[in-house]
Structures are given as structure tokens and as C-alpha cells.
Amino acid sequence: MATDGRTRRNGAGRRDLTEIAINCFARHGYQGTSIDRIAREAGVTKGAIYHHFRSKEDLLAAAVRDRIGEFETRVQNACRDAAPDESLRRIAEVCAEHARSEDRPRFAIKLMVESIETNAPVLEEMRGMMRRFRAFLRNIVRAGQDSGLLRSDADADAVAAAYTSAVIGAETQFYLDPKRFSLEHTLETFVSQMLDNLRPAGAAQTLQGRSDP
Description:
It is a single chain. The chain contains ten helices and no strands. It is mainly alpha-helical.
């Protein structure tokens, strides 16, 4: 019983440290964040950090996994019991909400840039996230095709890649110019236009016919 309690306390402490590390890495980048800085932010000694993590790189990898896991869970929950077209809209909403959440979204952008040539383990985590996100989108598109909601001749992989690119591009513009760039409107417009392009010809004609006097 004592061992179980100690494990739970250690797990909570580890989780707290990854949360604080995420904020530090988001604000200062990997190179600008030291174990000393994280310890000061957390109000603990460096030894307390090394009790849970072997190195700064190990802490970063754990923070990345936690961060990715949170985002993927939000996306999956948002799409539960939703039709394919509604799922694509909800994912855009989650991405917009995510981008406005304090400093954390910048964490991913900074790490992608910093890790391309300098941090193979983190790059692999980020690459895995991108691949899973594209696969998740591809499966939604294919479900829409199977149900007749979306065009069967569309390349689901290409649609997923375009969606992912649109999200990353929109979020980057938002981080650079938040006062003049409308993130929600941009993503909503993209998804609406994408769905219009993916609608089967018969469905499009039916909707057009309904709108005619």
C-alpha cells in the first residue's frame, strides 16, 4: 500500500515538472531552457528533477509526449459520435482553441524548427504526431466516402495532408500576427471550402436545386 501511494505521488510530481517544462520550452526554446531554469520555475532543486529524468533531453521528450497526448485526446473526444463532415469542422475548432491556450501551442512550432537537425528523439515524436494526425484525418475522409457524404474519387491522403498544412500555416500566422490574423475565420473558411470541393456532384446539384426559386 505504501509503495502504491509513493508511486502516485511520484507520478504527480513528474507530471507537474513536465507541465512547467512545457511552459519554459515554449517561452525560451530548447537551447534557452536549462534544468536550473525549470527548477527555479518549479520551486524545486535540480536533484528533484534528476530524480524523475536523466537529462534535459529526457525531460523534453516526456514533455513532448504529454503535450501530444493531450492534443490527440482532445481531437478524438471532439469527433466522438460525429459525422465525418462535422468531425472535420470540430477538429478545426479544437486547433483554434489550442492555438489560443497560453504559450503551449508555440511549444510545438519552436520544437519542430529546433529539432529538425539537432534533436532526433524529439523530431521522431513530432513526426509521429504528424503522421497520426494525417492518418486520423484520412480515416475520417474515407468514412465520409464510404457513406457517400464525400466524393469517392478524392485522394484521402492528399486531403489529410492539405488539412494538416492549412492548420500549421494558420497557427503560424496567428502566432506572428495575432491582432490582424483571424484564426477561427481562416480555419472555418478552409474547412467549408474543402467540404464544398469534396461534396459529390449529385449532392451539390441537389443543394443547388433546393436553393433555386
